[in-house]
Amino acid sequence: MGSDSSAPLVACALGIEAWALREADPVRTGMGPERAERAMRATLRARACAPSALVFAGLGASVVTGIRPGDVVLATEVRDDRGVVAQGSPFTLEKALVSAGLTVHQGVLHTSDHVVRGGERTRLAESGATCVDMETAAVCRAAPDVPVLSIRVVVDTPEYELVRPATVVHGIRALRALKQVGTVLATWHPN
């Protein structure tokens, strides 16, 4: 990994996400808030200088209807049960992602320490959340002085819960979209 301060640092949690994002040379943090925060702190300590931005990308779950598996959610706010961690980002990738053929939504990302289903998904939607993941808030806490942009590609939705037979098809669709995200990130630099 280079330490060019003008280049954004791309990171993700899972090996399968890193594989899909490989064109962007992502750093892998591991799954869950504790692992992600610990890994991101170590990554930032090891760099010669801070990155211009941190793009945390990967898979997530929509908590609202109208978003389909394979759609992208750009976080306008990142929060968890402790509160708001980050507000939007000065950098936007929406135009580039749409130009790559992706369907993009913007909304609040809630970070949970577990997989969210059913009634809990409904409660998060009622609280204003659009999408849920298990790492982004922790990554934001680990990088308080770096602008963070969170990109989540949806695998499951209220209409298509994670444990249904269609999960495999939706997972493949989401990974294809995440690969397109990686292609965009490989050439993107914050202004």
Structural write-up:
The chain has 191 residues and is α/β, with parallel strands linked by helices. The chain has a single domain (9-187), classed as Nucleoside phosphorylase domain (Rossmann fold), CATH 3.40.50.1580. 33% of the residues lie in helices and 27% in strands. The protein has 6 helices and 8 strands. The chain has helices spanning 15-20, 33-46, 94-99, 118-126, 136-142, 167-187; strands spanning 9-12, 27-28, 54-62, 72-80, 83-87, 104-111, 129-133, 148-156. The protein has a 5-stranded mixed beta barrel. It starts with 8 loop residues before the first strand and ends with a helix. The mean pLDDT is 91.
Q: What features would you highlight for this structure?
A:
8 strands; Rossmann fold; 6 helices; single chain; 191 residues; 33% helix; alpha/beta
